[in-house]
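Fold description:
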Amino acid sequence: MIFVAILTGIGGLLNYAWRASGHLTSTLEIVHMSAQVILMALTVFAAVRYRGRRQKMGHEGYKVFTLPFAVIYLSILGNAAILVAFILHLTGVIQSI
């Protein structure tokens, strides 16, 4: 599942870079938005299906994420941020990405 999270993270970054590289028609903006929704869904699926340890005991009794789950979590955060940026752009709250 970590491999899926890494691929969706890279896919999200490429989707954002392609969208930010120039002016696109409204049809292509919808394509980018739907691609980002699919990438986000795959990342959440990877987090739900992850079977390894999610946390371990850290220094002084604090619980910290294990490295594989931290990668999945960062992929979720990155894809969610890109999706929010796309939604804000489509609704006109922000003018450019």
Notes: The longest helix spans residues 67-91. DSSP finds three helices and two strands in the chain. The first strand starts at residue 55 and ends at 57. The beta strands are 55-57, 63-65.
